[in-house]
Design goal:
With about 100 residues, the chain is of the alpha+beta class. It has a single domain, classed as 2-Layer Sandwich (Alpha-D-Glucose-1,6-Bisphosphate, Chain A, domain 4). About 40% of the residues lie in helices and about 15% in strands. It is built from 3 helices and 2 strands. Strands 1-2 form a two-stranded antiparallel ribbon. Strand 1 and strand 2 form a beta hairpin. Helix 1 packs across helix 3 and helix 2 packs across helix 3. The protein is globular, with a radius of gyration of 14 Å. The relative contact order is 0.22.
Length: about 100
């Protein structure tokens, strides 16, 4: 069942928003196991080509507990994802251009 609750979270970044979106959202299944191996053990596309309706499977390490989905923890996790992607993009200026 889908949740009717929502929240907003703003993250400042020193790289262009389109690059950060491609790395942190569209290709996160590829980058997550490399940039956050303590959280994501592996990930892969299950269905689709990355557009609307695509499905990706993320396999988390044993350190990730179920029930960790409170808003504060979710915002912290989202920030960590984008900061990892930002650091990768800064270190690799030709990536996702």
């Amino acid at each position: 069942m889908a949740s009717t609750k929502s929240w907003a979270h703003e993250i400042e970044a020193s790289v262009a928003a389109p690059r950060l979106f491609r790395a942190g959202v569209m290709d996160w299944h590829t980058l997550a196991p490399k940039l956050a191996p303590q959280v994501v053990a592996s990930a892969h596309p299950v269905e689709g080509e990355g557009g609307v309706g695509s499905v990706r499977q993320f396999n988390f390490t044993s350190g990730v507990e179920e029930g960790e989905y409170e808003v504060a923890k979710a915002k912290e996790s989202v920030t960590a994802i984008f900061k990892a992607a930002e650091a990768y993009l800064i270190a690799n200026p030709d990536a996702y251009n």
